[in-house]
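Fold this sequence, please.
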Amino acid sequence: MATKAQLRANKKYEKEHPEQTKLKQAKSRAKWFIKHCDITRLDDLKELKTLINEQIEQLEK
């Protein structure tokens, strides 16, 4: 359990770094989804991989 000081520091960080916080939340949700989605068909996994790779290419440009 976090102390009150830790919670205040966390809120302050979130206010000062909203983009970084948003990115961390998105990464966490994506990791959770991949672990718990129960995708069993190979073609669905390949489609997900393609979407991720397209997003990576877009960001690298």
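The chain has a mean pLDDT of 89. The radius of gyration is 17 Å.
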